[in-house]
Design a protein that fits this description.
311 residues, Jelly Rolls, 3 helices, globular
Length: 311
């Protein structure tokens, strides 16, 4: 005689099936993303499936991860700003990287690699050899939970996320050989504008706006004064929010132009030498003169920070 199957209530059956699917998709996406570099549609696939799997965990949480410090050799003014190496920061446990920072040596950054290049959980920076060597310390802000992240970019200089999404900027894409005033800044909470020129593209990581609350943009402008080699600008988020994205702008500094001795490359704009947290709710950028000498004249610098608190 057969033992009759126990009937599950419909609600319990649906919950059990959903949990099984989330577990299977999350494990598969994570394993597959680690097997090979993610790019284009593959990155979107890995992001969306990992985000759905993490939804079962509840609210979004943010944490900062630090990469192993990397020693960067100096090159001197004559041969400075040649390619050094790429430094990567990986978010663990299925978390998605949003924002990258660095400190230590005053190294110029050529590109911030968005999270669809090496893997869906990684951000990186292409470091140019500084005039004076030192140790570079890179960090990434990681988000765990249902944020449904995907990367969008445009060669037109502006890019926007869809309705219901929040734009996390990828601010440097064509550095540091700038010869005119530049800006890579948020446009509201859904867009981004990049005027680096050349082959630079406006890039954002679009995330679910519903994962965050109290979203706002804070813009601070200052000056790199005449006679100074560096200047710092800091923006503070309001209330319980914290920085989740940053952009920058800098003016022309022709009196401090650095020129390559063996090519037509030059730099006439202060570059972002340091990008890092300032206390619990702030973010700071330190700009440095291209030739490492005191500024011949003052020039404007600026910082745009997108602030938010996870739900």
């Amino acid at each position: 005689m057969r033992t009759p199957l126990r009937r599950l209530p419909c609600r319990a059956l649906v919950v059990a099936l959903a949990s099984a699917v989330a577990l299977l998709c999350g494990s598969s996406a994570s394993a597959l993303a680690s097997e090979r570099p993610a790019g284009g549609r593959w990155a979107v696939y890995a992001h969306e499936h990992a985000a759905r799997a993490s939804a079962a965990a509840g609210a979004v949480s943010l944490s900062t991860v630090a990469a192993r410090p990397v020693k960067i050799a100096g090159a001197g003014a004559a041969t400075g700003y040649t390619s050094a190496e790429s430094v990567w920061v990986e978010c663990r446990g299925g978390a998605m990287p949003l924002m990258m920072g660095w400190s230590g040596t005053r190294a110029a950054i050529a590109t911030i690699y968005s999270n669809n290049l090496l893997s869906a959980r990684t951000l990186g920076v292409a470091v140019r050899r500084p005039l004076v060597g030192g140790v570079l310390r890179a960090t990434a802000l990681c988000a765990r939970g249902p944020i449904a992240a995907r990367t969008q970019e445009s060669s037109s200089g502006t890019v926007s996320c869809n309705a219901g999404q929040l734009a996390i900027g990828v601010p440097i894409d064509g550095g540091p050989y700038w010869t005119r005033a530049i800006a890579s800044m948020p446009v509201g909470t859904r867009g981004w504008r990049n005027t680096e020129g050349g082959y630079a593209r406006a890039k954002v990581i679009c995330v679910a706006a519903s994962a965050f609350r109290a979203v706002h943009v804070v813009t601070k402008r200052a000056s790199l004064p005449a006679g100074a080699r560096t200047a710092t600008v800091t923006a503070e988020c309001r209330g319980a929010t914290r920085p989740v994205s940053w952009g920058f702008e800098a003016g022309l500094l022709e009196g401090n132009t650095w020129r390559s001795p063996d090519s037509d490359l030059s730099i006439s704009v202060p570059f972002v030498a340091t990008a890092k947290a300032s206390g619990r709710a702030g973010w700071s950028l330190t700009f440095a003169t291209p030739d490492g000498k005191p500024a011949a004249s003052a020039t404007p610098i600026g910082l745009g920070v997108t602030c938010a608190a996870p739900r």
